[in-house]
Amino acid sequence: MSVARPRSTLRLDPELAAISVLIPTFDLADVAGSRELEKRLAAQGRQPHAGVVTEDLRIPRRDGGELGVRVYRPNAPGSLPALLYIHGGAFVLGDLATEDDRCAFYARGAECVVISVDYRLAPEHPYPTAFEDCVDALVWLHAEAAELRIDTRRIAVGGNSAGGALAASVSLASRGGDVPSLMHQLLINPVLDCRSSSGSMAEFTDTPGWNRAQNTQMWDLYLTGSTAEVDERAAPALATDVAGAPAASLWIAEYDPLRDECYAYAARLMAAGVSVGIAQYPGTIHGFDGYRMTSVGQRALSDQIAALRWAFRS
Question: What single-letter DSSP state applies at residue 313?
Fold first, then answer.
């Protein structure tokens, strides 16, 4: 049985400890206010992207509507591998600006085309809308590969936090033939289990970045109002079988409530014969790799780029 650990006992990375009091806490009981805060923070952090060309497009959804995507292309010749990237934000926050810098870093560093998805958000659009939007984006990417100069043999999916849940769910769907196949899933601090019953979930109740109460609120906002069966399309950990999933890399923070569900999912993938890489960073909290003013944040991003380059060479 895990006992909740007070924030004061965490042995945080020194640079993260120095900024931990400045890390914003999103009140998911106030979705509108949290969205406004997230937009302001994203606007403050955006940097010029040397060596990367971006283009915003509207693509078709299965229901006849349109979906926004942003395409990032590095200054590299020929047909390139591609990463379908799904932003974080607890299923209720975020848009194309949320992880704009990260997408540009991936495009330039891994020499790949990155397609970021502006999926529809809960609670206005509950599960499985976001999942369906991400699948639609992957289908479009594959269909337009020649126009986008993408090598269809080298397509990966990635996501951060709630985006990691969607990336893992899309990866499971890609096994069936109706959804284009994938060669890799890049899962960064991923949300994976709606049951929120792991040891780390019980232990980290007031950690900066993310905590148990926020996690519970997130799942309520995402799933309430849905008439769909709650299965692996919502929470990948609910899958009865993960065999045949694409190779995976999981990026984990030591003091993240999501930590143990990540390890549990990684163990299931490995037991099913899926190639898995795991990296946990000591003294870190949920979303730490977004704080690129810290050495550990920079190192994690560089490691993710190296993992993508390795995957695309396979």
Answer: H
Percentage of residues of the chain with pLDDT beyond 70: 97
Which are the contacts of 308, defined by CB distance < 8 A and separation ≥ 6? 83, 106, 109, 110, 112, 156, 158, 184, 186
Helix (H) or strand (E) holding 144: none
Distance of alpha carbon 108 from alpha carbon 112, whole angstroms: 7
252-308 pLDDT, tens per residue?
999 999 999 999 999 999 999 999 999 999 999 999 999 999 999 999 999 999 999
Q: Position of tokens 């993508």?
A: 308
Each residue of 9-48: pLDDT tens digit? 899 999 999 998 888 889 999 999 999 999 998 888 677 7
> Could you give the CA distance from residue 285 to residue 254 in angstroms, rounded to a whole number?
6
Q: How far is CA 162 from CA 1, 93, 167, in A?
A: 26, 10, 9
Residues annotated as catalytic (active site), given as ranges? 161, 256, 286
In three-state form (DSSP H/G/I as H, E/B as E, the rest C), the secondary structure along 36-86 is HHHHHHHHHHCCCCCCEEEEEEEEECCCCCEEEEEEEEECCCCCEEEEEEE
Q: Which of 20, 107, 97, 86 is CA-nearest to residue 296?
A: 20
CATH architecture, range 7-313:
3-Layer(aba) Sandwich (3.40)
54-to-47, 87, 103, 116 alpha-carbon distances in Å: 13, 16, 10, 10
User: What residue spans define the domains of the chain?
Assistant: 7-313
Cα 124 from Cα 24, distance rounded (Å): 24
Of 57, 46, 146, whose CA–CA distance to 103 is shortest? 46
In whole angstroms, what is the distance from residue 41 CA to residue 103 CA?
17
